[in-house]
Amino acid sequence: MTFLALETSRAEIPSGGTAGGPAASPAGRDARPPGPTDLVADELVHLLFDRRERDQVHKPWRGLISGREFAYRPGLTPVERTAVSYDRLGLVNSAVDGVEDFTNDPRRLAALHEWIGAVDGGLTTLASIHYNLFLGSLLDHDGDRRDLSDFTSLERTGTFLCTELEHGNDVASMETVAVYDRTSEEFVLHTPTPGAQKFMPNTSLIGGAKSAVVAARLLIDDQDQGIFLFLTPLSDKNGHLPGVRVRRLPDRTGTPVDHCLTAFDHVRLPREALLEADHGRLGADGTLSSNLGNRRKRFLRSIGRVTTGKLCMSAGTLGMSRAALTIAVRYSHSRLVAGARPGERIPLAAHRSHHGRLLHSLATAYAMTFLHRAVMDRWAGRTGEDQAEVERLVAVAKGWITWQAREITVECRERCGAQGLFPVNGIADLPQNIEGGITAEGDNLVIWVKAAGEMVFGHEAVRPGRLGPLSPGQDLDDLAFLRGLLAQAEGIWQARARTALRAGPSGDPLGRWNETSSAALEMVSAHARLQAADAFLAAADRAAEPTARFLLHTLCRLFLLKQLGEHTGDLLAEGLMTPDQVRSLPKSIDTTLGLLAPHMMTLVDGFDFPAEMLAGIPIAGSGALDGGRDEPADDRLDAIG
Q: Is there a contact between 232 and 273 (Cβ–Cβ < 8 Å)?
């Protein structure tokens, strides 16, 4: 498709709109009479939200956040906001049909995070911990042999204690121990040093009685058997149980959660507290049997739910990104500013300097969503043979999606000006909430460094030049050509990383990696964006509605053009781009922005946020925050002037 053909889409601007798109409806798309743009938006929704599985996977959570219980509540203290998040966790649990099946379904679990992430970051954290890390770990370890009813009913809330104060990314070096007492056939759970306190679990008394899955080093006859998980009751209606010491941590940024330091003073646990599976079972004679030969593999198997957690963290930040864009785009159409002519008023969205930034973010958000869907498909269909490769893909996607989410939400906050600073307008808390997703379930940089180390030689990127010589027919409106250039960029950085590793100082592993890591991380970054582009292209090709297909292909072109900008020097040097193509890149981006600008509202309608939710966000409807109740008179003002 050429730009000449695409130009005809300018006639598709909906009536009553502007060059920046139609004005925002206060009630949202749900309340508008059906029209051509709704057919397009419906197709986008269909493609973004798991197509035929949408009703089962996404619809329950979309409906849930429509309720008044999920609207913003002003004036609450951090403790009160945390309590509200726990109350909402109860509403989530009531909406789940079969908690155990839900916990074992990664699509439904991640979808929950996508929708609640937009309205309550604290709830997103609590749900991820209770369902995935806590209940999921129990189910993965002979869960059918336990009575889980207290946890599936939320009579007891579950939490997960792994990270220690002095052991985060090196959690495999944790110090917490569970000593097996042969005489009583019990475990003695103990925190031996201050640095071994479990860091940041939600173990306060807010939210009612709690139990935890605690990671600890199993000692049998003074022999270290590796790290295993232990089901440990923490509190009941009367408070924390004997031997459990909990101290609240200071308030963090973003939506509050009751993060604490937690320690154990020789807490005795019954024999059945050990979470067992084939990687570790304790026999009647007190002997550990395992199908895994080394302790590190046993540990990784024990905390296997962390990979699903990465998908959940990515999903939560996806929802936050899409919410921020929906709010910012709607505001840009209802906020009027002075035009070029005397007395003229035009929407912010009419300005290229405004809608261009939002469109780049929209392109990235669509790419993030389609990447997440593709990675979820790989994870759900994984086999023993590709398990390691898919786990790496999940980690790479988590890093890229959550980092992009932060950039998008910051951009949206800025585009809403001072209005974006007020939490009631739905954006202010989102960047800080995303920070938690960047760090949780594996710090982004750390998991990318691990992926980079594996991919330097364990993954074969396109070798530079494999596309062959350039031809006059290849141009910047050719999606296959643009995709190929991005693949070449990955190959260029992999070749650099391999050269650096081979040339690094011998006998100095750290020195060699230091020489390699910069190029290797650029390779991972290009790989993530290439995977996103492939998922985007595949989704665009599936579109049945013509205008939706046009929008997706054009938006994907914008995404690819943006990604290639930083690689043009390398691509030019390798003879993969011509000087004229490099010079024309900014114009190609600008032209593509012009094609997409009239359709911004349709693109965010594809994110399918319910009208009830948007109606509660002032700038998503009326266009401004006009204040609440009047402040009482203050006699002290009389003394001024």
A: yes
Token pair 């309590």: residue: 83
CB atoms within 10 A of CB 290: 17
What's residue 204's pLDDT?
98
Of 568, 607, 603, 613, the closest CA to residue 589 belongs to 568
The full 3-state SS of 215-230, as one line of letters, equals EEEEEECCEEEEEEEE
Count, residues in the chain: 641
Rounded CA-CA distance 568/578 in Å is 10
The angle subtended at Cα 80 by Cα 79 and Cα 82, nearest 5°, is 65
34 phi and psi, to 5 degrees?
Answer: -60, 140
Which residues, 6 or more positions from 9, have their beta carbon under 8 angstroms from its beta carbon? 547, 550, 595, 598, 599
What does the mean pLDDT of the chain come to? Answer: 90
Instruction: Give the model confidence (pLDDT) of 409-450 as tens digits.
Output: 999 999 999 999 999 999 999 999 999 999 999 899 999 999
Q: What is the pTM of this model?
A: 0.91
Q: How far apart are CA 74 and CA 618, in angstroms?
A: 13
Task: Residue 302: name the closest of 368, 225, 371, 241 by CA.
Answer: 225
Partners of 346 in beta bridges? 337
The pLDDT-based confidence of 472 (bands split at 50, 70, 90) is very low
Gap between the Cα atoms of 67 and 70, Å rounded: 6
Residue 198 · residue 214 · CB < 8 Å: yes
| pLDDT band at residue 622 using 50, 70 and 90 as cut-offs | low
d(CA 274, CA 233): 13
Centre a 10 Å sphere on the Cβ of residue 467 and count the other Cβ atoms it contains.
18
Q: What is the rounded distance in angstroms from the CA atom of residue 65 to the CA atom of residue 44?
A: 21
pLDDT, tens only, 362-378:
999 999 999 999 999 99
* pLDDT(24) > 50: no
Query: What one-character-per-residue DSSP string does 475-535 give?
Result: -TT-HHHHHHHHHHHHHHHHHHHHHHHHHSPTT-HHHHHHHHHHHHHHHHHHHHHHHHHHH
* The pLDDT value given to residue 632: 52
pLDDT reading at 515 higher than 80: yes
Nearest Cα neighbor of 207 from 68, 64, 82, 77 is: 82
What pLDDT is recorded for position 51? Answer: 79
CB 354, CB 332: distance < 8 Å = yes
* Number of CB atoms found within 10 A of residue 591's CB: 19
| CA pair distance 556, 307, nearest whole angstrom | 28
Give the Cα separation of 355 and 596 in Å (integer): 9
Question: Exposure string (b/e) for 364-376, b if CB count within 10 Å is 16 or more?
Answer: bbbbbbbbbbbbb
Q: Cα dihedral angle (548, 118, 614, 631), rounded to 10 degrees?
A: -150
Q: pLDDT for 69-117, tens place per residue?
A: 999 999 999 999 999 999 999 999 999 999 999 999 999 999 999 999 9
Return the DSSP state at 635: G
β-pair partners for 217: 177, 227
Beta strands at 198-199 and 239-240: parallel, antiparallel or unpaired? unpaired
Contact 398, 444 (CB under 8 A): yes
